[in-house]
Design a protein that fits this description.
Largest sheet: 8 strands, parallel
Helix content: 40-55%
Distance between the termini: 23 Å
Strand content: 5-15%
Shape: globular
Number of helices: 13
């Protein structure tokens, strides 16, 4: 990942003075979705870039060591060798950006990736994911335990209760405490935007999370009714841009939840390129939280190479 964001003192004046123009935001998102597309060899390039930005995720109650081992293998071999050779990318070390699991599965993920010789970071959700409705002491200990087990990235969740009641000082203090508990591990802060009530709250939560030292801000847990949608992405990207312009610190972005198609992945990459610049199209500053997306990307690459879509049994499930 890129250099870390050290954070700044909470600027409540800045936070409270912000307002989001919802109609303009919706128009921007709709225009982006309708007009941004890539085809042929350029599509293949963008899709391979998207692969390197995926946090390949399993966050199910029935996760087992076998599931995690399979996930780690797919993270290290995300695209069939014949497809990579056909586009002359077989020797470029294409892997996913990270593997993301529950804290109880971190030790296994680290072991399996080490056995494979893969230099892929392990990310762990924490702090009472997905609800965040646990005592602060419990949430802090969960972060410390995940780091101790070998997680190098921690995906924490903010308190939506505090955000919805306008207690931005409380949100700031908790996120800052989580950052300290992470130590050297990079911290991604999940805003759970589908539960924040308004785009203005999304912008305010983004600012507060960055002020508290978040290295990434992330849209969703993937468990809400509404997850990663473009209007929210526009707002969060503008917050990242404003924070960078005012402080000089760069913060990454991670949409998660509901991103299942190759076209979706290209649209999110286009958003990054246009709103934040080329640096935010690399996995040091951009990640996509997904479990099923990789399957469709590999399917589209197969079509690019062979001119037809693969049968289901021809592509290993991600």
């Amino acid at each position: 990942m890129a250099c870390r964001n050290p954070g700044i003192e909470l600027d409540l004046g800045w936070v409270q003075s912000t307002r989001v123009n919802q109609p303009a935001t919706l128009r921007r998102a709709q225009y982006l979705s309708a007009t941004r597309t890539v085809k042929k060899k350029w599509q293949a390039s963008w899709l391979l870039r998207a692969v390197t930005c995926i946090d390949l995720t399993t966050l199910s109650g029935d996760d087992t060591p076998a599931n995690v081992q399979r996930l780690c293998y797919k993270a290290y071999h995300p695209v069939r060798d014949d497809l990579l050779k056909a586009v002359n990318m077989h020797d470029k070390g294409i892997t996913t950006g990270a593997v993301c699991v529950y804290p109880a599965r971190v030790k296994e993920a680290v072991k399996y990736l080490k056995q494979a010789g893969a230099n892929i970071p392990v990310a762990s959700v924490a702090t009472g994911f997905p609800s965040g409705q646990y005592p602060l002491s419990t949430r802090l200990q969960e972060v410390r335990d995940a780091v101790l087990q070998g997680a190098s990235e921690i995906d924490i969740v903010i308190s939506r209760t505090q955000a919805l009641s306008g207690d931005w000082q409380g949100v700031y203090d908790e996120v800052k405490a989580f950052r300290e508990a992470c130590g050297e591990a990079h911290m991604k802060t999940i805003l759970a935007t589908g539960e924040l009530g308004s785009l203005t709250n999304v912008y305010k939560a983004s600012l507060v999370a960055m002020m508290a030292g978040s290295d990434f801000i992330k849209t969703s847990t993937g468990k809400e009714g509404v997850n990663a949608i473009l209007p929210v992405g526009v707002v969060m990207c503008r917050a990242i841009r404003d924070y960078h312009q005012r402080t000089g610190y760069k913060v990454g972005f991670k949409p998660a939840g509901g991103i299942r198609s190759a076209k979706d992945a290209c649209t999110w990459l286009a958003l990054m390129k246009e709103e934040l610049g080329d640096e935010w199209t690399h996995n040091s500053m951009f990640r996509i939280g997904a479990s099923g997306l990789l399957t469709d990307i590999e399917r589209q690459l197969y079509h690019h190479v062979y001119g037809r879509y693969a049968a289901a049994h021809q592509l290993p499930m991600s």
